[in-house]
Amino acid sequence: MIEYIACIIIAFALLQLLVALVNLLFREGLPARAAKGESGAETRQTLSLLIPVRDEEANIGRLLGDLTSISDRIREIIVCDDQSADNTASIVERYAAADSRIRLIRGAALPEGWTGKNHACHCLAQEATGHYLLFLDADVRVGEGVLDRSLQYMQRHRCDLMSIFPTQEMRTLGEKINVPNMQLILLTLLPLPLVRLSGFPSLSAANGQFMLFRHDTYKEMQPHRQFRMSRVEDIEIARHLKRQRHRVSCLTGIRGVRCRMYRSLPEAVEGFSKNVTHFFGNSPVAAILYWLVTTFGFIPFLIAGRWDGLLLWLTATLLTRIAASLTARMRVGDNLQLFLPQQLMLGAFILRSLINSRNKSFTWKGRKV
Questions:
Q1: Other C-beta atoms lying within 10 Å of the C-beta of residue 187
Q2: How confident is the model at residue 37 (pLDDT cuts 50, 70, 90)?
């Protein structure tokens, strides 16, 4: 019996390695930026940047500083302040006074049946006038040329939605233990090229930190209204669009799109516990099995005395982490050295998710979600 279990664990480890290698070898990038003054449909499209914020005084100035310093074609930058209690609104007003493209709208009291972010995104979309709508989280940083090249990508691949998992900035040991889990799960379970190339809704991914829609598709689907109570509206929207035969794409490791997501342990636990099970089809059982197999997969080999199997499992596991780290532009050495604490923290995320789900006590930025 134990040898059958060991075989299953080996098969799963090799499957993860295969997926990680596909993502590394066939990683999609943005096209080279078109030359200035180049004619064509790509250069005539207009872009609305839409930024929902709530208590983001530490981040919003840096993002607006990025957006006002690059030469990408931006028609308008609209920020929706969702009743911040800090200086977020005054920072936005300061930037708006210096750049006429920036506009601040103030969110009213949150209606029943909505999460704050989804309502803010919905309100922003009602104000936008561009051909394309790019929703950005306030903690994202954007470099020169990324926005123009993103529009080119949308045109060339005829996408209705394109999302980017930003390169994560991790400065503290706590961040290096917490933050890579999301990318490691994604890049070892889902071949990202198939998000665009296959029609299966189950092969979908998106990240609310950077979601670029065709305006006409957004207007038709009203995705934030449709999933107004969802804690993982990004994944739900991507799956829904594919079910409706719209084309979706998801990229990662793009230079010029980065983010420093969680800076404290409690913030990371609350943030990741909201959505960790959704990486496994919203199945807590699948999440727990994944964690057990990827953390304690060596035990059956020790019990069976199969050192050859143990060596194969260990090799596959380490190569998988190397490939996923390279794809997401994470530091390989960190993800190898911190394998055990990262796995333990993943277990903590899953446990917290189960507890919050049972008690219906998910919270984010002072609100129940």
A1: 30
A2: low
